[in-house]
Structure of E3 ubiquitin-protein ligase RNF123:
Amino acid sequence: MASKGAGMSFSRKSYKLTSDAEKSRVTGIVHEKLLNDYLHRIFSPPDHVSPAATSRKFLNFQNLPEHLDQLLQVDSEDEESQGQVEGRLGPSTVVLDHTGGFEGLLLVDDDLLEVIGHSNFGTIRSTTCVYKGKWLYEVLISSQGLMQIGWCTISCRFNQEEGVGDTPNSYAYDGNRVRKWNVTTTNYGKAWAAGDIVSCLIDLDAGTLSFCLNGVSLGTAFENLSKGQGMAYFPAISLSFKESVAFNFGSRPLRYPMAGFRPLQDPPGADLVQAQRLLGCFRAVLSVELDPMEGRLVEKESSEWQLQGQPTVVLTLAHIFHRFAPLLHKVYLVEAVLISFLLGIVEKGTLAQAQSMVHQVLDLFWLFMEDYEVQDCLKQLMMSLLRLYRFSPIVPDLSLQIHYLRLTIFILKHEKSRKFLLSNVLFDVLRSVIFFYIKSPMRVEEAGLQELIPTTWWPHRSGREGRESKELKEETAEERLRRRAYERGCQRLKKRIEVVEELQVQILKLLLDNKDDNGGEASRYIFLTKFRKFLQENASGRGNMPMLCPPEYMVCFLHRLISALRYYWDEYKASNPCASFSEEAYIPPQMFYNGKVDYFDLQRLGGLLSHLRKTLKDDLAAKANIVIDPLELQVATMDDLDEDEEPTPAAAQRPMQALALGGALPLPRPGWLSSPTLGRANRFLSTAAVSLMTPRRPLSASEKVKVRTLSVEQRTREDIEGSHWSKGLLLGRPPEEPEQPLTENSLLEVLDGAIMMYNLSVHQQLGKMVGVSDDVNEYAVALRDTEDKIRRCPKRRKDILAELMKSQKVFSEKLDHLSRRLAWVHATIYSQEKMLDIYWLLRICLRTIEHGDRTGSLFAFMPEFYLSVAINSYSALKNYFGPVHSMEELPGYEETLTRLAAILAKHFADTRIVGTDIRDSLMQALASYVCYPHSLRAVERIPEDQRVAMVRNLLAPYEQRPWAQTNWILVRLWRGCGFGYRYTRLPHLLKTKPDDANLPSLQKPCPSTLLQQHMADLLRQGPDVAPSFLNSVLNQLNWAFSEFIGMIQEIQQAAERLERNFVDSRQLKVCATCFDLSVSLLRVLEMTITLVPEIFLDWARPTSEMLLRRLAQLLNQVLNRVTAERNLFDRVVTLRLPGLESVDHYPILVAVTGILVRLLVHGSASETERATSVLLADPCFQLRSICYLLGQSEPPAPGTALPAPDRKRFSLQSYTDYISAEELAQVEQMLAHLTSASAQVAAASLPTSEEDLCPICYAHPISAVFQPCGHKSCKACINQHLMNNKDCFFCKATIVSVEDWDKVANTGATSSAT
């Protein structure tokens, strides 16, 4: 085996450590005296070792082994006993007792030191107990949820409700609730956070028990512990579902050792002494140089040492590593000896010197140690570094994290070590994503943020869109100074965090290096394989929480990955002018269908991949020259049918993980347990990546390529990057795509993975962290309210004033804490740079969707998450990064809005998209888009043909699709134009519950006259467009309002029962939804009548009269139900039940009034006459309902003015802030008109016999006869019936025609014939 060392290579087989007579004649060995001096200098005994033990005899390589044996001999007083120790019972290696010492379901890792709760409240104890002396152990808190950590005796009995501390002789500390537990509970300690270390100390000599948090004592928790015969205490923990910790009983050096207390597990004392002495010898080699010419030893700085290939030095190192190598696979020695040595190198000298020194040390490891020894050592080294990085306390300058990251970088810069770690450790054994995470300090005082940000400030309002801003007072000079001082502190914090982030990016740059392919595969392609498996595990294991990467880690990983990716992308562009800049990046559509990239079981826009391959195989052949192998199609089909996967051989051979449930449960090993030392799951879904067989000659344009299956691990660089005869990932280019490459294909796959990461959990975490900003806003409002109360409080009420001052102090302290924490969150998650990263992903998704759309039917192969990320990233930029950063400041903001608008407008009804969830997401996104002025203007900027197509899809009949969101979109286009429809918040909510009026969905009206005009033009065009659309609206209105009435009847009955009843909150929510739907459908009808009144009032149209009669019928039903005196609606509104806040008279009555005013006031005389006759002809019409609108119980006498409304009654006149005087005048005009018309109809109407009434509705006279059967009904009934059915009501004969029927005329005709 060869290694690079100072320009020379050495074969380890050249060195024999056995002594023989020829050793002295080895060429290159220095003369005996210099060799003796050199060896004595290197292998000198430590100061505390007796000189007699290693007497100064003449040393050479023959007697050096004997000398080393004496040097490494451990005195009895130094050697620790590894067996039983007084005061302790149990195995010397302390682990968690997964065979019997547990309760509930728990997941325990292979090392039996890490545990995850997998049930309500599981408990587990250790295998070793103590009964005498002073002992401690440490717990690394991986999640900050509900846990009780402490000690218990073997007699304690636990269950799913009672854990450690809930029974006698068990004691626990709970940092989640900040309490201590021993049957009863009291306040104790302070809150813990993920990344903290809890030390559990028991002093059985004094009978006390205490805890420390990150080395700081929390004080004595319990005294007078029970002692004596049969009383021995086990370390124990109870933890709830998904909570996780890692124990350190002494198998690793304690992070916070306590004087006088001993870890439960003894350290490897003899090995530790030997390792330290051998390290001292190694240090001596690095600091001494041989000068054979002068015959002397030269002292020099170890940072300047170089391995020159001198046989004396090489043989000396060989003797050292012969003894040192077997010790370096032990985690305790790696952490206590090796990491300390390497960190010392990093902290001394320049970075270049440290890098060179670490590189040489690793060269020596690979040269003098067996491969398995180096690999074990590197594995333990990286695991320890990861643990140290994660559980290091946050200090103001982040120096600890910086040192650990720099050492990690120096190790990874060593090519051979990097490739081994990348292939076998970083993604397989470790949760290496932790290296890219910067944990947020829960206790700002410990993180030094008080010194870094001495002055706190907080915004007085939320800048997030969706919240109406109140007018603010002008900022005072004092507030301005505070804000500027706070911003300076935030900048100082951000600069320090950026140092850590840059180091993290350097790690990823090393992992993405594709130029280190000398003697093996380049790092980037190893990374791609591991990265794809990482994505697969997180995409496929959503139901198995331990398998997932925590979202907070994924956010940081994504941003660092984007930085490294863009670096290599633009670097490639610099050397390849034909390539694209990273700002122009997108994913070519052929990657979605050529099978080179595995998307696991993720849904495609067109459905399952196997289905698409079968249905679109002809399109693939025609557009992409790809032929699907029939055998592959058959295999894919069988895979779809057989969902039960077989365990892989690797998983079958691997020992099952320990599970505390009476034995091991055959679950996959949870690789995403919260401890960094846990291994990755070896079982993945049995989906193989599909690749194209690489042809060995260039393809002509007409030649086809067959598809075969290829696992991710089997892919080569050629399969990814391609060659002169293959396009790699880009094989199967459609004619719409350019021939020149965007960048290296491997970078395209990394980018694709980054977009998938955002979809998996990053967006969710971005929304979650906004909670800190929301907390600041809430406390700021509470503080301002308290200060207002203090100013208004009478001076004589000192008791009230004292309480208010106390509240003010609490709120101020909380705001100081939160504002500093908010600064950290903004620097790590919501900074300008992070916002640009998310914006970059948004623009990439938009370009990718646009390019995919051009491929026609092949667009169906695109994974759904591209559309999801486009929608969600826009939402994040709009809602999560304010008020510090605004999306409007981003480059190309207007263009991006317009492109996203075009995508939403085109694809919300795209037949190529079949997934229900993604179609709903598109519809909801479009509904939100038209709600805001900026985005609505973007919709208006898209090409006219796309706008018209969008409106046409919105006007499709509701019965054929989910219609609620479509209706909301139409309503939002109208809002601000309707009768009394200019409100931002519902008026009755302002009166009864003002806080609820600040709902994000309630926006200022921003109607679109342009889209309204498109709607009017479309409704006028075809003879069937308007009738089919309006009939569907009327049908849904009838259903929604009927459901609403039925539900409030049930609610009323439940409320009136004598026994205490609770109405189901889901029922209340559905009831309120039906009411809101009824109001929105009425508003759509109002918009239609206003824009295209002739649809209802021009009776030259065949369907106008029928539509008008149906509309009048529904309006009368709504009015009668809502306006009846002391009716059901009134009683439910009076109850004001939670969940029914939106149910009130105003929203539904003004919507009905708007329709009536347009029909009866705005039209011509002939239109008004038609509308009036139809309305009055409806048997449900009651003039009293119209009077109700103006607060009157009866219509006024002709010629008299309207009396003042009763304040206790509903009246539109009470809403002058929302209804203009002109609108009120129109309502009065309508009432006067209907009063007069109803009086005239009453005077002129003749009694109608029952025989002459329609036998269907009994409301109108018979006016139509069916041919050929001759049965009769009114025109309204038969017209409505014929829309859905052609059979006669009575005889089921097919109706050929409908003729007018007049009893008088037909009677006369019959008499004449007679």
